[in-house]
Amino acid sequence: MQLLLLQTIQAPHDAGERPATSVPGLAAKPIIDMLAGVCDVEAATARMGGLLGIGYEDFGLQVPGRHLFATGGPANEATHHLHVVEHRTAAWFDPLRFRDRLRADPALVQRYGQLKRELAATHGRDIRGYSEGKTAFVRDVLGLDRVPGRYGLGST
Questions:
Q1: Helical H runs in the chain?
Q2: Which of 37, 52, 97, 133 is most deeply packed, by most CB within 10 A?
């Protein structure tokens, strides 16, 4: 996949796994969740024909600064998610900080896992509803309650 990213995006700055697939003990859907950091999200996504050619679907901007591509089924049932974000911005660092906080706190992992199960039961295939349902929890874990604009929310 990294070779395809290099060819498609023309040298992403970095790539890695997103939280649910890289936190031991966390309940997760069987989705390989990847994060690709690029200089310019708009320019990079304009060159994503290679991904579309191998079956990825373009789901556009899901939250400010994060463009989603998925393959293997409808977005919330896909086998692979690729989140293209601007490297070294909140869209890059926040998921990694969130993952690291989960890895350090087993009780937090249990709470997050329970929330994810409840949201999956409530929202089914509605990826936006599922994602929006996690926003308050993620913001709380990252201490973002007073940071407007992150995760597509206004000030709180």
A1: 2-5, 41-46, 49-53, 90-104, 106-123, 127-142
A2: 37
- The pLDDT tens digits of the residues spanning 10-30 come to 444 455 555 445 788 888 778
Q: Which residue has the tokens 């899901």?
A: 62
Rounded to 10°, the helix 127-142/106-123 angle is 160
Domain map of the chain by residue range?
Answer: 2-144
Q: Which of 123, 153, 152 is nearest to 62 (CA)?
A: 152
Taking the CB of residue 130, how many other CB atoms lie within 10 A of it?
A: 18
Contact yes or no for 125/77 (Cβ under 8 A)? yes
Q: Report the top-level CATH class of 2-144.
A: alpha beta
The answer to whether the CB of 80 falls within 8 A of the CB of 31 is yes
Spatial contact of 18 and 95, defined as CB atoms under 8 Å apart: yes
